[in-house]
Structure formats: structure tokens, C-alpha cells
Design goal:
8 helices
Length: 582
Amino acid sequence: MYRLFRSPRLRMMEALGLPVHSSSYDEFWPLRDISLEINPGERLGLIGRNGAGKSTLLKLIADLLQPTEGKIAVRGKVQALMELGTGFHPEFTGRENVMSSFAYQGVTGRKALTLLDDALEFSELEDFIDKPIKTYSAGMYARLAFAAATAIRPEILIIDEILGAGDAYFAGKSAKRMRALTAEGTTVLFVSHDMSAVQMICDRAVWIERGRIVADGDPIEIGRSYAASIRKQEELRLRAINLKLSRGDVSEMLTDNETERVFIVRFIAANGGPPNHPVRFYEIALERGGEVIEKVTIGASADDDRSQRVHLLTAKGYMDWGPPQSDEDGRNCRQFVDCNGQYRHAPVSIRVPLGLGLVEEFSVRVMHGGCSGADELLCQVFDGVEYLTLGKLHSPTSSVSGPLSQTFSFEPLGSEAHPSTSESTISRSDFVYGVGTAWIDSVDFVNVAGESRRVFAFNETLTVQIHWTAKSNIASMAFVVCFYGMDGRCVTQVVSPFFFATDNCRSGMVEANFSPLIIGKGDYIVSVGIFDGFTEGQVAGEKPLDVQDRQYRIKVISPVDIKMDRGLVVHPVAWTGRSNEK
């Protein structure tokens, strides 16, 4: 937990050991209630958005920070590559920095010189090794730092984004070395925003958001979920941009900006103050049509992080949110309790993304412990002029154990002055997205005889059959099929010519024939999609109609008579030759 003081003077007083009142600072918990065990030899990838708590966790493990509460047990010597620019002296040459690094680890003399040769060979920086580090590019620095850190086999290797400065060639080389190190017992903790790098390097992934673990497991599955979450955020952003361009003068009527509207939802007793008996709150979620847009776990880390779409307002001396705590069953929560807050209420800030629909289509779901029968607790929202009551909190009953869940609609905030311009969407799984004007009915993989298969041998025919339906005329439907390796990298992606949906033709089937299949032996994940106007001249499709992201899995095997490893791509080749006569 960090203390965020309201003035430098107060921070200095604390540093000098002088007493500082708790109302003079806010508490910020970048991590809380993390429980994690990492075994020897594991390659663990940490993923999550900026500010999720990844680097804080690594700094705790590396003993650069001390935990406010809880315990960390690290068995083994840690070698940490946390940030570019740390560990090496900018005025020293590359050679001097590497030798100093070895000396810090207790290796000097002839052995250090031998290891230096290994680091030089791995980093491929022989021409620059006697130049000052300050003249190196970020990629060169990353190469040398990684080579020096792994020349002596570390027991625990921590890498925080530093490899992102290198090129794809060096990333692949580094991944190979990390696999070799873990085979010898080294534990690797790797942080990156590049999911393909995590899938290539790691055998386990942990997704962290708001200082808590969201998911822990196979990198492929975690990567799919994380990509879906990022895509949802990007879709909100793109819809907001499109809305900003299309709303015109109507945007001037909004209280905040053209793309989002901030509402303050508060809990308050009917008499205008806090309840007579404390009420626990566990979770608050912003929803639309039953779909969770974003939620906050109350009492967990970063529940008052102002960068988040849903966050508590917890300013001491003003609000009546109690400190984070846990209930009898270990669930995170806070109490709405009399803290002598000036405003006598427990408020939550919620940013509603207007690009998704009308304000009245949104609702707030609240999980709470129930209020005492002697209290009448209201859920209210500020409409810019006054607080409107959305409903009353229920009291606990003997028939319901655990927290109560209530949903409060924003319907009273509805206004005809703000018509929705959002496109209709088909709500399906997190891994299926698109505007929904055309959609995929089914996908099948068949062999040359038309038999549905999931296992194919290379050099035979694989046909991807895509059945589609459209609800309007579309003049430029492009179908895309993409094969991914199990490390997350794109193996091959193909885009069809344009197909048409007309009044007389609103459904059909498109086939992508891979004849012969030249993808090598291995397991693959396949994405299939329909785009409006996508061509090979674009980086990505700008208007997805329906995309089934990594929804299918196939296997490619070698023919029985071929034992040799033929690689990722079995490329057609023509051999020619001649004999030299004597």
C-alpha cells in the first residue's frame, strides 16, 4: 500500500518519523489478496494492462519492495532485468559492465573471462563491446543485459518488458535460452504485453487486473481471454470515436464529453446520512442487457483507482466508505458506516460508454450484505441537477445465505434528446464479435472426399467451409481464415475476393481450399471471419461483420512414410541438377 499525501510537506513529515494524521493521505493498493505459488523450473508469464500491478509484484519478489501485509517466500537467488537503464553504468563500456555484473555475482578471474566470451557470442555485440553503454540503442542494451544475466545460470530470472526493445530474431533466441535454463531448473518470470511472446516463452500464464489474479493457467487459453478483454475495451473506444464523429451538435448537450458520461451513484440512508448499522458492499458492476461492461470488487486492491470505468470515491473526511476488509468467509468488502464524512454518503463513479446505446439501457448491479430492518438505504444517481432514487436496498433474509444481488436500472435518466446511434450487435461468446449485419452460421473442415475432419496430413487437401447469412445488402464481403501456432504466432492468413449479399441472395457458403496443405506437423488454432471491405492491402479489417476468434482447433500430421521433421511450412520446391563429366 502506498500513501498518497496531499502535500510534499506531509510526506516529508512522515519520512522524518513525525506523526501524520490518516486524513492527510489516501491509501493506494496496487496489489492486494494475491495468492500465488511458482514452482522451480516454471516459465511464468504475467499479463495485464498498464497499472494492473505486474511490476509491483515482481519488485516484491525481487525484494525491491516490502509488502504492507502478507508474506513472500522466495527460495533461490533472483536475477532481475526490470527496466532499461538499470544495473549498468552508462559511462562504462559493455565489457566493463558485463565483468562488473559477474563480479556482483561472485565470479571473477579466468571464469569471468570465459563467461564474457559466452555473453559476447550470444549478444552478437563484438563490434560495440568496448564502447560506452550510453551509446547503445535500446535493443543493443537489452541484448547485452539479457546475455550477462543468463551467462551464469540464475535460480530465478525476472524479465519485465526489457525484451520488448529487441527484435524478433533476438526474442526467439532468448526464448530458446530460457527454455534451456528452465530445463536445468531455473524459474523464469516474464512480463510482456505481447501475448505471442508469452505463448512462445512460457508454459503458464497469470492474468492480473486491478491488483488481483483474474486467471491462471495455460497461456493459449489465458491469451484468448485476455485478447477478448482487450478487444472489448478497444471496441468501446472505437465505437466512442465513431459516435463522436456522427453525433454532431447533439454532443454539446452531454454533461461530460461526446463519448462518455460520468454518473455518481451513491448509497445513503433515507434520513440523509449513513445507516445506523454498518452495511457491507462486495461488488458493483455496470451492465447493459445483462452483459457486464466493467465491475469493481469492493475492498480489493485499486477499488478506488480513478483510471477505471467503475471506482469508489473514498476521500477521507468526505465520504463514509470504511477501510477495505474481509468478511467471515474471506470475501473482500467495505462497510458503509459513519466515518464522520462531510457528505454523509458512500459514492461510486461510473463512466457510461454512450457508443453502446441509450443511457436508460444501462444498469448497476450491487452485491451487498443487506441493511438492517431499522434502516432504509437508498441507491441514488446524480443526473446533473439532483439525485434521483433508483431503488431501495433489500434486507437480509434467512432463506438467502451470502451477499444479496440487486440491479438498479438507469431508466429514470432516459432522454429522447440523446438518440442511440450504435449499430446492432449479436451478443455471443467473448471470442465472437462483429457488428452483426452478416454472420457465420457454421464452419467445417473437410477432406477431398467431403468428409468432416479435424486431423489432416500435409500435402493433402483441406477445405474450410463457411456457411453465412446476411440481413442486408453487402457489396464487399471478405472472408478471412487464419491459422495460429500454439505459441500464438500467425502461421498463415488468407483473404477471399469480395462476395455479395443482395435482395435475392442473403445466405450461402464460401470455401477456402488449401490444396495441397503445406503447413507442417503440429497443432493449430483457426480463426474465421467476415469483414466488410477487407483486402490484403490492409493491415487489419476495419469493419468486422462476424469474427470467430481462435474458435477451432485442427492437427496436421506427417504421412506414415515420412519420418523427417519438415518444419513449420512444407514449401514446394523444384530440384534440378547436372553431372560433371570427366
